[in-house]
From TrEMBL:
Domain Ig-like span(s) in chain numbering: 1-54, 64-148
Coiled-coil annotated residue ranges, if any: none
Keywords recorded for this protein, A-Z: Cell adhesion, Cell membrane, Disulfide bond, Glycoprotein, Immunoglobulin domain, Lipoprotein, Membrane, Repeat, Signal
Gene Ontology annotations of biological process type: cell-cell adhesion
Name of the protein this chain belongs to: CNTN4 protein
UniProt subcellular location: Cell membrane
Entry-linked Pfam families: I-set, Ig_3
The protein's assembly and partners: Interacts with PTPRG.
């Protein structure tokens, strides 16, 4: 006689509630298939003469999709620059970096690890367009950002050279001079019009 058909999962989990069974045609339909729906499914056909089982593995995959992108950065010379990009996907995406369209390799000052890029001391030669590439066997995606490296002349607007009153003869006085500048400036000190030179005091 015509068999009755039923469905089950071989791993013991429940078939998703959203699944639709078409008993007459032996069809199982799973809309909006997600990772948790993946697994080994069994179709069981049974009549008074016996039973037979057919098995099929459903595998979930997804092309990469950005969960964290990179954005443009303006940095002064010798500043630290860090970028991090993250993508979801199945299987898990791998990452690589491009600079001005050319592959970027870990070298010297440039540190690459998974989806992160770090330049501890940026220089003018580091300026350019960078791309983070995430890929798996189902797709490739790109995220782009520009690194602009700027030079700044010494700026004392946010630095105060305080008037110091020596309370105790022989005490130590420290005067800090920290202007905003890029690249790092050289320093010289004057007392009045005379240039101060280092000595035993």
């Amino acid at each position: 006689p015509v068999p009755t058909i039923s469905w089950r999962r071989a791993d013991g989990k429940q078939i998703p509630r959203k699944a639709r069974r078409h008993r007459s045609s032996g069809l199982l339909e799973i809309p909006n298939f997600q990772q948790e729906d993946a697994g080994l499914y069994e179709c069981v056909a049974e009549n008074v003469r016996g039973k037979n089982v057919a098995r099929g593995q459903l595998t979930f995959y997804a092309q990469p999709s950005w969960t964290q992108r990179i954005s443009d950065v303006h940095a002064a010379i010798e500043e630290r620059v860090s970028w991090e990009c993250r993508a979801s996907g199945r299987p898990k995406p791998s990452y690589r970096w491009l600079k001005d369209g050319e592959p970027l390799l870990p070298q010297g000052r440039v540190q690459l690890e998974q989806g992160s890029l770090t330049i501890p001391n940026v220089s003018l030669s580091d300026a350019g367009m960078y791309q983070c590439v995430a890929e798996n066997r189902h797709g490739v995606i790109f995220a782009s950002a520009e690194l602009s490296v700027i030079a700044i002349g010494p700026d004392f607007s946010k630095t105060l050279l305080k008037k110091l009153t020596l309370v105790k003869v022989g005490g130590e006085v420290i005067i800090e001079c920290k202007p905003k500048a890029s690249p790092r400036p050289t320093y010289s000190w004057k007392k009045g019009k005379d240039i101060l030179r280092e000595n035993e005091r």
